[in-house]
Amino acid sequence: MPLLLRVNQLRNIIWSSCPVMLQMQHAGLPSGKLLGPRSYEKRHFTTRVQTLETAVMDTTTTGLGSCNSGIQQLKLQRTSEHGQCATILVFDIETTGFLDKSNNNRIVELALRDLSGGKNSTFETLINPEMDIPTFVEKVHKISTKMVRRHDIPRFGDVLPLLLAFVQSRQTPGKPVIWVAHRAKAFDAPFLAREFDRCSVQMPTDWLFVDSVCLARKLPNMPKSSDGKKHLVNLEALRKHYGIRMEGSAHRAMQDVTTLCQVFQKITFDLNLSYEGLMNDATKSSAFSKVS
DNA sequence: CGCTAGCTGCGCAGAACGCT
DNA sequence: AGCGTTCTGCGCAGCTAGCG
User: Family assignment (predicted)?
Assistant: First the structure.
């Protein structure tokens, strides 16, 4: 009997060290899904619970109590208290291409909107990139080289002082400015910071960037991708999820900003996210800028 | 007490996503 | 078309309940 146990133990050790693929083939099973159904179900379930707990914790640990019922409510508070909270600017940029190591690509359109609304709450401009826009990029945002590579279209360096003045006009003294964009951390914010660097201008240190993709990933019940593995969190999927009507064409900066404004308010409401919760998710401008 | 079987958590690699 | 982030699944080690 002890010998049998030893043999069984040895078998188990050897067997457990075999590639799972081999075991599946040996068992006559297809080599597609390698986890057992029960394990897969448990892992999947655990992941979902953790996600929900994290989302709940994000809103409950802010210590706000009555103040953590969404940005919409906070907007009212901000209005009623004459701007006691941070300014939230939803923004989007269109460029000549991706953010790559070559550092060649430029911004061709910039749009932003102050979420608190009111007069002069938007800023929108085409920007002369001083380079041609690749055809495949033109097809995305419908902004052609002819439209922007003109003498009457300002360069980013020309727009920069106006942008800074606009933001300052919307900013509450002593309070930060929260910039919100879809994929801000990986695209919009670094791109904007790079343009600041190129102009040798330091991005204000009280600017914070929030990525709406990161927030959307915390949402439960988002639609899944075609393979059923991932939650779809692109702007179009979020727009459809919330039943937001599309006005104008997608992939133009102000149109995307308008859509994102509505999506963002829905997300913050669903996540019960407060200003403090938002600040916890924010990244400082210094993280993207090289000019110090 | 020793062993088995199952579960959990961590680190890693690869795939997919999302932006223009 | 590039790149960073996120997610998923695998492999492994460690833990523990149950059993003989």
Answer: Belongs to the exonuclease superfamily. TREX family.
Whether A9 maps to a domain, the answer reads no
Please check whether residue A73 lies inside any domain of the structure: no
Which of strand C's nucleotides are less than 7 A from any protein C-beta?
1-12
Instruction: Write the CATH number for A266.
Output: 3.30.420.10
Chain center to CA of A101? 21
Residue nearest to nucleotide C12 (CA to C1'): A17
User: Would residue A182 show up in a list of annotated catalytic residues for this protein?
Assistant: no
Strand B nucleotides within a 7 Å radius of protein CB atoms: 2-5, 7-9, 16-20
* A33 CB inside 7 Å of strand C: yes
* Nucleic strand C under 7 Å from the C-beta of A273: no
Does A97 reside within a domain? Answer: yes
Point out the least confidently predicted range of A24-28, A132-136, A242-246, A252-256.
A24-28
Which nucleotide is nearest to A143 if distance is taken from CA to C1'?
B20
The closest of A156, A138, A148, A141 to A193, measured between CA atoms, is A156
pLDDT for A113-151, tens place per residue?
A: 999 888 899 999 999 999 999 988 898 898 999 999 999
Distance separating alpha carbons of residues A101 and A108, to the nearest angstrom: 19
Is A94 among the domain residues?
Answer: yes
